[in-house]
Design a protein that fits this description.
This protein has eight helices and eight strands, in the order ααααββααββββαββα. It is α+β, with helices and mostly antiparallel strands. It folds into three domains: 94 residues, no CATH class; 129 residues, PH-domain like; 61 residues. Helix 1 runs antiparallel to helix 3, helix 1 runs parallel beside helix 4 and helix 2 packs across helix 3. About 10% of the residues have low confidence.
Amino acid sequence: MNIYVIFAIIVAVAMFVGGFVVARQLRALQNVPLISLMFVKYKWIFSALMGIFISGIFSLAGLLDTKFSAWSIVAFIVMVLIASTFNYFGISLGWGRLAPVNEDVNPTNQAKINELPGNVIVDDTLNSVKITINTRKRWVWFAMSLFPLAMGGLCALPVFGLFVISLSQEYLPKSMHIVIWFVVGAFVLYVFYARFQDTLEYLFDKEVIEIDNFSVKIENSTSSFKSKKEYPADNIKKITTMFSLGGTNVVTKRSPFINSNMPAFMIWHNRGLKRYRTFGRAVDLAVAQRILQTVYSRFPQYKD
């Protein structure tokens, strides 16, 4: 009995917070048909499906400690109602009041490049376009990213590395054992370093992007940390804004919550495991589109 009460409390809190956060993030895509159906028109159905799925998982976990009975069915139904209701209210609160979603950013209606917000500076020099973005430290997101970093980088990666090493040593000669340790160790350290760099970006309060004919350079820096990455032009397929609708001039609006935490630009690569790179935090998508028009006019190879 007690375990079901604990599960009900956990489910209620988790579903409300989960619904709120997801809706808060995705309400920027309210003009996307699937998102609109899930979080507006058929919000109750979506919440009910989520409630059934989550309650089913918790009920199965509860059966490990108790025997199946008629009470188990009643508890499952009650838990579904609780989960669905709290998820519905979380989505409703996170989504908020609907706002106009289309924003025309045709060149004839664009603001001048010098009318950008105060935290964004664009220097259109002779050889490049330099974009300086002053953001703010995102301590909550940094703290949230530490858990997957610790689980993946400090637990899963070493275990995976040791598994690969032990498996390889069975089929390769002893003379190759030191090479296996070196290669696998280097791979594990590289992956951990890359994830650590991504985590530290939540603390970077300044982003400098320099675009020219040869490459795109992205530098994140504060008084204590600095990270700089360069992407050759021949490996860049295109540069776009996030959530822009292809083939149109429509860019979705974002909430202030999203504006402060999500990047506005995307680099699409021609090759590689990760086919995109995002950058440009704390920039409104309409502002990002105006900046891209300047980039496209100078360097058309980065346009679709």
